[in-house]
Design brief:
The structure holds two protein chains of two kinds. By secondary structure, chain A is of the alpha+beta class. Chain A is 29% helix and 23% strand. A four-stranded antiparallel sheet of chain A has the order 2-3-1-4, covered by helices on one side. Chain B is elongated and about 75 Å long. The longest helix of chain B is centred in the middle third of the chain and has 15 residues, at 111-125. Chain B has two domains: 2-88, TusA-like domain (Translation Initiation Factor IF3, 2-Layer Sandwich); 97-203, Hypothetical Protein Ychn, Chain: A. Chain B has helices spanning 14-25, 36-48, 111-125, 152-160, 169-174, 189-197, and strands spanning 2-6, 28-33, 51-55, 63-69, 97-101, 134-137, 164-168, 185-187, 201-203. Chain B is of the alpha/beta class. In chain B, helix 1 (14-25) packs parallel to helix 2 (36-48). In chain B, the strands form two sheets. Chain B has a five-stranded parallel sheet with strand order 8-7-6-5-9. A four-stranded mixed sheet of chain B has the order 1-2-4-3, with helices on one face. Classes of the chains: A alpha+beta, B alpha/beta. Chains A and B meet through helix 1 and strand 2 of A and helix 3 and helix 4 of B.
Chain lengths: 75, 205
């Protein structure tokens, strides 16, 4: 296991948006993972989408105009 | 009248209950307890009931508490003090912590939401302290351990950390996932029921 993999996370302003984005990413075959929003970012029961930096542009493009990413940041 | 109560080994709140009962008919009570929660709660009871308290030094894990009712005190009418909660000194129940994953969705209502929640739950389980000893997957829960599942990497991390993952064979067969289980071991009802019935704690998201 590569313990020190650097990931990015995409935050959304609602769980529905996360679910919508997940559907799109799955259809596009872009690797992603649903993870809880880290506690230091939000104490809400939130989920976000984690991915490798190399997929950043593809993710932004595939979601463009379909759902709104609130923020992309390092995990 | 005086009375001695041996409350050693008794589960909370028994020591307090017995002491309170004894106070109704005695002026002098000696209580033996073997944990600090019982000690503290009996002291609180005593002060609210108008008794003086003397605690002997601990001997072999046992405290000897002597209560003496002050003249005119009426414990029956005492306001109930705020007791320490009973679980404060409890050791975790003996036996393994078992996570039971009976569905691929967490909670009932909206399954799409439930699936998102379950993914987040399984991912979080890796970092939990204490970690589960065993995770059991049955019914649609087995999909999480099969090829194509989004949480296979999490389940593999859990296995690497020593978590035993049992996957219901009957369910694997039902969902036509035979040969596609990619994490854990395909198990049977004997193991599943046995593990659950000997668990110290069962967590079912």
């Amino acid at each position: 296991m590569s313990e020190k993999t650097e990931y990015l996370i995409a935050l959304f302003d609602s769980v529905s948006r996360v679910m919508h984005a997940e559907r799109i990413l799955r259809e596009c075959g872009i690797p992603y993972k649903i993870v809880p929003v880290p506690k230091h970012i939000s104490s809400d029961c939130g989920v976000c989408i984690r991915f490798l930096p190399e997929y950043r542009e593809r993710i932004i493009q595939s979601l463009d105009g379909k759902t709104e990413i609130l923020e992309i940041r390092a995990l | 009248m005086s009375e001695t109560i041996n409350a050693r080994g008794l589960a909370c709140p028994q020591p307090v209950v017995l002491t309170k009962k004894a106070l109704e008919s005695n002026d002098e009570i000696t209580v033996l307890v073997d944990n600090t929660t019982a000690l503290e709660n009996i002291q609180r009871l005593a002060s609210s009931a108008g008794c003086s308290v003397e605690v002997g030094s601990e001997e072999g894990g046992v405290f000897k508490i002597q209560l003496l009712k002050k003249p005119g005190a009426s414990p029956e009418n005492a306001v109930q003090p705020e007791y320490l909660p009973c679980d404060i000194d409890d050791k975790p129940a003996a036996g393994p912590t078992v996570f039971v994953i009976s569905s691929d969705a967490m909670g009932r209502g909206n399954d799409e939401l439930g699936m998102i929640l379950m993914k987040a739950f399984i991912h979080t389980a890796i970092e939990l302290e204490p970690r589960p000893d065993v995770m059991i997957f049955y019914n649609t829960g087995v999909r999480l351990a099969a090829e194509g599942s989004d949480v296979l990497d999490d389940l593999k991390s859990l296995e690497e950390k020593g978590v035993k993952i049992l996957v219901c064979g009957t369910c694997v067969n039902f969902f036509e996932l035979t040969g596609k289980v990619a994490a854990g071991i395909v198990s049977n009802m004997y193991d599943i029921a046995g593990t659950m019935s000997t668990a110290g704690r069962i967590v079912q998201p």
